[in-house]
From TrEMBL:
<keyword id="KW-0143">Chaperone</keyword>
<comment type="similarity">
    <text>Belongs to the TorD/DmsD family. TorD subfamily.</text>
</comment>
<protein>
    <recommendedName>
        <fullName>Chaperone protein TorD</fullName>
    </recommendedName>
</protein>
<dbReference type="InterPro" id="IPR050289">
    <property type="entry name" value="TorD/DmsD_chaperones"/>
</dbReference>
<dbReference type="InterPro" id="IPR036411">
    <property type="entry name" value="TorD-like_sf"/>
</dbReference>
<keyword id="KW-0963">Cytoplasm</keyword>
<dbReference type="InterPro" id="IPR020945">
    <property type="entry name" value="DMSO/NO3_reduct_chaperone"/>
</dbReference>
<dbReference type="InterPro" id="IPR023069">
    <property type="entry name" value="Chaperone_TorD"/>
</dbReference>
<comment type="function">
    <text>Involved in the biogenesis of TorA. Acts on TorA before the insertion of the molybdenum cofactor and, as a result, probably favors a conformation of the apoenzyme that is competent for acquiring the cofactor.</text>
</comment>
<dbReference type="Pfam" id="PF02613">
    <property type="entry name" value="Nitrate_red_del"/>
</dbReference>
<dbReference type="InterPro" id="IPR036386">
    <property type="entry name" value="HscB_C_sf"/>
</dbReference>
Length: 215
């Protein structure tokens, strides 16, 4: 049981880390951590899994390259804004509705579905993050909370029910649009930091779905 809890905590930590990465621009303090030993150790641990080895190495390489930019924080902030705070014609907007919605507009069915899920599981969106519910950062934060919720159950049946809910969420609310989002990031992100991060996220979600499915 303790192994189950510890493993779930590690999974939630990764989802929450990625949520923060796509939620806002990195600060100087964030970048100091990215170039420090703890991040190196964290990524090295992820890279020990064969399915994550290549995307982790690509992300680590772009982190090292980023450290050589003349004004790293400002340039990465500009990359973030150009990708995620622009328009569908010029950026890679991090909303599920832009990829699997029917109207091509924000707050389409994926956002409505997320609102229903957050209500069903009593998982609230952070008040300070005023974005539609199908924003990538919101979905990743929700997944992290769903994982920890499984740890808090008092019966195997309830834990298994929440593990199956996680599998359904990854498949129907993340993997249904992440490949398209990653492709847009790769096409639009000239420097490549966020494209590499998105690719690592996609690889992790695929791996996590396989784990949840018992493969």
């Amino acid at each position: 049981m303790q192994e189950f809890i510890a493993f779930n905590e590690q999974r939630a930590e990764i989802y929450w880390w990625m949520s923060s990465l796509f939620a806002r621009e990195l600060t100087d303090a964030d970048l100091h951590e990215y170039h420090g030993g703890e991040m190196y150790t964290f990524l090295s641990g992820l890279g020990m899994t064969e399915e994550l080895k290549a995307p982790v190495e690509a992300f680590r390489e772009v982190i090292n390259q980023s450290n050589t930019r003349p004004d790293e924080q400002l340039e990465l902030a500009a990359d973030f804004c150009g990708l995620f705070l622009s328009t569908p014609k010029t950026g890679a907007l991090p909303y599920a509705s832009m990829y699997v919605g029917t109207s091509g507009l924000l707050n389409d069915k994926p956002a409505q579905d997320m609102n229903v899920l957050m209500n069903d599981y009593a998982i609230a969106q952070r008040k300070e993050f005023n974005e539609p519910a199908d924003h990538l950062a919101v979905e990743l934060d929700f997944m992290g909370n769903l994982i920890i919720m499984a740890n808090q159950q008092d019966t195997e049946e309830k834990r298994e029910e929440l593990m199956q809910a996680q599998l359904s969420f990854v498949n129907t609310m993340l993997l249904n649009w992440l490949p398209l989002f990653v492709k847009e990031c790769q096409n639009r992100d000239q420097f490549g930091f966020y494209a590499a991060a998105a690719n690592l996220l996609l690889a992790f979600c695929k791996l996590d779905a396989a784990f949840l499915a018992g493969e």
